[in-house]
Amino acid sequence: MDEKFDCIIVGAGVAGLAAAMTMARNNMKFLLIEKGEFPGAKNVSGGVLWGSDLAKLVPNYWEEDAGWDRYINHRRLTFMDEQSAFSIDFKSSHFNETPYTGVVVLRSKFDRWLADKVQEAIDASDHSMDSFIATNILVEEVLMDSGKAVGIRTGEEKFYADSVIIAEGVNNLLTRQAGLQDKYVPADHILTGVKEIIRFDQNVLEDRFQLRGKSGMSNEFVGFATDGVEGGGFLYTNRDTLSIGLVLGLKDLREKEKKPHDILNVFKQHPVISDMIRGGEVVEYSAHVVSSGDKRLIPKKLYKSGLVVCGEAANLLMNAGKAIQGMDYAMRSGMLAAEAIINAKNTDDFTEGSMKKYQEALEASYVMKDINNFQDAVHLLHDPVMSQNMPNLICDFGRNFFSIKNEPTQKARKMLGKAVKKHSSYWELMKLGWKGSKAL
Amino acid sequence: MKLLTLPERLGLVSYRNQAKSEIKPHIVVDTEICNSVCPHKCTTYVCPANCYTMDEKGQVHFQVEDCIECGTCMYACDQGAVSWEFPDPEIGRGVTWNYG
Question: Does the ipTM surpass 0.95?
Answer without folding.
Answer: yes
